[in-house]
Amino acid sequence: MIQRPGAVFFGSGTFAVPPLDALAQAPEVVLRAVVSVPPRPAGRAGIRRPTPVATRARELGVAVLTLEHLGRPEELAAVRAFDPGLIVVADYGRLLPAALLGLPGHGALNLHPSLLPRWRGASPVAAAILAGDDETGVSLMRLDAGLDTGPVVAQQRLRLEGHETAASLETALAGIGAALLAASLGPWLRGELGEEAQDPALVTLSRPLRRADGQLDPAQPARALERQVRAYQPWPGAHLDLPSGRLLVRAAALVPAPPGLGAGTDRVAPGTIVADADGIALATTDGLLRLLRVQPAGGRAMTGPELRRGHPGIVGTIVGSKQPPTVA
Question: pTM for the full model?
Fold first, then answer.
């Protein structure tokens, strides 16, 4: 009987949970341990909670290591104790040191939610939405010492419809990634999967998201703002800074400006909150951004019409502007 290699999974965020389940169910390997980052303070109360991956691993009855510094000899030894023949990484949040990558005989594989080499880095899902990409997907790559620089061994593409939020797209890509991993494990272990080096000329980078990224700038086109609203759900979220306080924008849609109400005309300046049907919209440089669902700071989420009925004085308010949103 052929002995199945032991596998150690490295992951932290929600994208990694379906791939973890796929690895736990895979007949080609034995999942011996899961490595995740330590609990971090979350929410206004700052309560420390384990990562989604650590929580799921404990539900599966798998040993969990919460390691802070993988370069330390004692933490490397903790992973080595599980004798990994294969390492699988997804949404871990940190680079694995070369000493760790050299442990497993079958190497280390990483699931990345983009079509590498497009959108390497920390926020590939948001970057694809912000850029208006027609498609994205998941790449299975062999890890090397760089950031998402290793050769690609398998990919699965996903057509984008133009209505995805970062949350909904990540969920879809997590399922695709789990299926891609399950289908690729056997061929990889048997040496049947080739490797394709990433073309340096096609590399694009996505940087970590910042809280300030969510500020909507009415000096930008309406389409760019609509993408920003979708790309930053659930975090950092999109918002407008009004004289009355911050207004979170949970959902928005493009609306052609009616005659005489075009943004940039003498009648309406970009950044003005205008009446739109029975709701409200933001005037931009080239049209209107209908605010479908909003949430005043400290208040509850509501529709645009609900906000207008409760706060009729919001019509005519002018918001500020900032630099264009960036994805790299």
Answer: 0.93
